[in-house]
Amino acid sequence: MEEAWIKPVDLTETSESLPPVAERFLRYAAVDTQSDETSRGCPSTPGQWTLAWMLERELTAMGASQVRVSDHGYVYAKIPANVETADGGKKRIPAVGFIAHMDTSDALSGAGVRPQLVRAYDGRDIALSQDAAVMLQTADFPELLHYLGKDLITTDGTTLLGADDKAGVAEIMEMAAYFLAHPEVPHGDILIGFTPDEEIGRGADLFDVAGFGADVAYTVDGGALGELEYENFNAASLRLTVNGRSIHPGSAKGRMKNALLIGMEFQSLLPAFDNPMYTEGYEGFFHLTGMSGSVEKAQLDYIIRDHDRALFERRKKLALEAARFLNQKYGEGTVEAEITDSYYNMREKIGPAMFLIDNAKAAMEAEGVTPVISPIRGGTDGARLSYMGLPCPNLCTGGHNFHGKYEFICVQSMETVVEILKRLVCYFAK
Fold it and tell me: Which residue in 40, 96, 241, 318 has a CA-CA distance of 20 to 30 Å to 220?
């Protein structure tokens, strides 16, 4: 009798044969590269150095040129152009870069990742944990049913998987291996870059755009097969510090200022439904990410997001006006609001280079993939890099449910992404 659910095969305890891109991914997933926002170093964690040096060795062994790891853990490499004109000179075509990040989110542990395999998925729920307490269910994740007959790599229910963005790293590496093994295929300069600490917003901070040498680039850091993104949130962080006054509650009337309650009052002044729990698509939000303190002093941390630049500025203004109102009510200096811009919508910079999108769409369609153009409800290294002079839209990796124990990726999707990358390179050489 068939079980009610599927129990995947533990890939750390089997000799299951997988395509090269999946084998690469598993090798990279085994390295704990979770970033740490409390660290001031770059990379913020030692595991990212481990993966950086692993990639440097592999690129060198493949025969890539100008392979280097920077003092801050960025990995760079080049595959020189081989396109020649009739007179033997080099034809000038755009140098195209491919970029992915090595770190994983701190939302869930990335240590001791034990990937599991579901062969020829048949539509049943998947028991991630041994005791079936953690289930990947079609009722919660109906996108599973898009993968009937396909091979899926999942977590074991205790960690994230790391497809964000080690799948992107693996796909770029497999694309690079192809061109280095097939010098007869014409192409322009191909530049490869792997960044640390993207998940904590620092991935582009020390990226050497000039030294990288690309005219244009793509990040390979998206989700489901077909996703193509060139719009993202404008983003800012808000730190609200509330300076209260602690008085014994027996004699507090008219004198106590409860910092925690004033912080709650600040939250009440923001639109109740402009919240990630209630928004989608192009809708922006205020997101309270942390609150701590006491009667005497409290701190609230927010992220502010909106695709529309004018609405983004309006949201920041509203937060400052709420702080001013509370200072008028409770006394100047009660509330301190510090807003720091993080990144902006890359659409402004991609607009003059829409051939990047046209080429990506054509490459996907040639592989039988329908492009799905949608706004990123977040940001990528590409957004920052676009404002640093390197137009850089975002391509899919084939993964789902990033940053958590329900993360999974389709093996065949990873193979298709590699083919899309190869076609993209060839399109630029035409």
Answer: 40
**Token reading at 316:** 């920041």
- For the question of residue 198 being annotated catalytic, the response is yes
Of 279, 246, 280, 243, give the one whose Cα is nearest residue 263. 243
Total domain count, the chain: 2
| Spatial CB neighbours of 351, under 8 Å, sequence gap ≥ 6 | none
Same domain for 193 and 155: yes
The whole domain housing 406 covers: 5-231+345-428
Contact call for residues 152 and 118 (beta carbons, < 8 A): yes
Structure tokens at 290: 């942390």
Residue 60 Ramachandran class (φ > 0 left, ψ -120 to 50 alpha, else beta): alpha
Per-residue pLDDT tens for 127-162?
Answer: 999 898 999 999 999 999 999 999 999 999 999 999
- Last residue of some domain: 327, 343, 359? 343
Q: pLDDT tens for residues 281-303?
A: 999 999 999 999 999 999 999 99
Is there a contact between 302 and 287 (Cβ–Cβ < 8 Å)? Answer: yes
Co-location of 332 and 400 in the same domain: no
Residue 46 — pLDDT band, cuts 50, 70, 90? Answer: very high
Catalytic one of 164, 165, 198, 415? 198
pLDDT at residue 85 in the model: 56
Phi-psi region of 29 (alpha: psi -120 to 50; beta: other; left: phi over 0): alpha
Identity of the residue numbered 76: Y
pLDDT band of residue 14 (cuts 50, 70, 90) is confident
207 in Cβ contact with 43 (< 8 Å): no
Active-site residue (options: 32, 103, 125, 227): 103
Whole-model pTM: value is 0.89
Q: 187, 426 in Cβ contact below 8 A?
A: yes
